[in-house]
Write a structure and sequence with these properties.
319 residues; alpha/beta; Rossmann fold; 2 domains; 7-stranded parallel beta sheet; binds flavin-adenine dinucleotide
């Protein structure tokens, strides 16, 4: 099946889930990467190394800064020329807008934040979590092309093959002057939450000494090469910026390891981390709901348990 994969990036830095999408597309047959931006030829070459059979590259000053209008118009024009059966996107805040606008332009549908995708007869069946992750639904899209955004870390990332080459076809940008993006400001620092293999989060349980609590959590995350997350309660109390919030109104993460310290496990928090491969909870209250989702639980004070874990990991990892 002919599949296109949109390579999402910020200032040339690709969202790693783009490569996961490319790996999945290759299992369906021919896969072309879509790369838009300015001075992004290097990204097109990287897409070939990650297995793209070819790249459609729109490298133009009008695409220097992401704008869903211009990017959707450019992609819609390409689809009109030679429509693929399926377009995959990594799920990011940018692609949520882009895929939705493209679906309107092409009078098709978009399946969002998909965690499983099967192919039967040129039609995909998508699995996606609904009701805050309590149920998984299977959905199809009857219109064409089928647009699907894939949850980060839900699909394996292919191993790149250095020096792999292929066709890079330059295509024209379609200007859309309706919106001018002046600047992007990112509140996220360090390892990206959505791409991190390990997330260590804290909640209102740090309230006795929030600065010290997040310092301890940050130290554990650093030893594990992970990112720091938080519950909304911690964000609302001003302990940590909103960019770190995990949950229904924050980020959705699927790390290999999620450590929740001083977080009760409200459904709105769980919806953002339920798909983590291994959940560890540290909580003073043995009846906290988070323990129902956790594979390993520690009933104890995070101010003692988190530094103890950091020391143990340091020793184990030789750091
Ligand atoms: C529309 C809506 C959207 C929402 N979106 C989100 C969202 O995106 N993300 C989110 O997280 N929440 C969200 N919430 C809020 C959610 O309902 C909870 O209020 C919030 O998750 C609670 O955060 P918490 O677990 O840190 O705090 P609490 O529920 O107060 O739990 C704190 C926990 O820390 C434990 N504790 C206390 N001291 C210690 C200690 N020293 N050591 C160990 N454990 C300790 C306690 O036993 C307790 O279990 C949303 C709510 C609504 C209504």
């Amino acid at each position: 099946m002919k599949t296109w994969v949109y390579i999402d990036h910020f200032n040339g830095q690709p969202a790693p889930a783009s490569w996961e999408a490319l790996g999945l597309a290759k299992t369906f047959g021919e896969a072309s990467a879509i790369v838009f931006g300015q001075n992004v030829e290097a990204l097109a070459k990287t897409a070939l190394e990650y297995g793209a059979d070819s790249v459609l590259l729109a490298d133009d000053a009008s695409l220097a800064v992401f704008s869903p209008e211009a990017f959707a118009s450019t992609l819609a024009a390409l689809v009109s020329n030679s429509p693929p059966a399926l377009i995959l996107f990594p799920t990011t805040s940018r692609t949520r807008e882009l895929a939705a606008m493209l679906a309107i332009d092409l009078a098709t549908g978009v399946l969002v934040d998909v965690t499983g995708l099967e192919l039967f007869d040129n039609q995909v069946t998508a699995t996606r979590p609904v009701y805050e992750g309590k149920l998984l639904e299977k959905t199809t899209c009857s219109a064409s092309p089928q647009l699907v955004t894939l949850r980060a870390r839900a699909f394996p990332k292919p191993t790149p093959e250095a020096g792999r080459v292929g066709e890079i076809k330059k295509v024209a940008a379609v200007a859309d002057g309706s919106v001018t993006v002046e600047d992007f400001v990112s509140g996220e620092q360090g390892v990206s939450l959505t791409d991190a293999g390990v997330v260590v989060s804290a909640g209102r349980g740090v309230s006795n000494d929030p600065a010290e609590g997040f310092k301890l959590v940050g130290a554990l995350a650093a030893v594990l090469g992970g990112a720091v997350g938080a519950s909304r309660a911690a964000v609302d109390e001003g302990y940590i910026p909103y960019a770190n919030q995990v949950g229904q109104t924050g980020k959705v993460v699927s790390p290999d390891l999620y450590i929740a310290a001083g977080i009760s496990g409200a459904i709105q928090h769980m919806s953002g981390m339920r798909s983590s491969k291994l959940i560890v909870a540290i909580n003073k209250d043995a009846d906290a709901p988070i323990f129902q989702a956790a594979r390993y639980g520690v009933v104890g004070d995070l101010f003692t348990m988190v530094p103890a874990l950091t020391e143990a990991f340091k020793k184990k990892l030789g750091k």
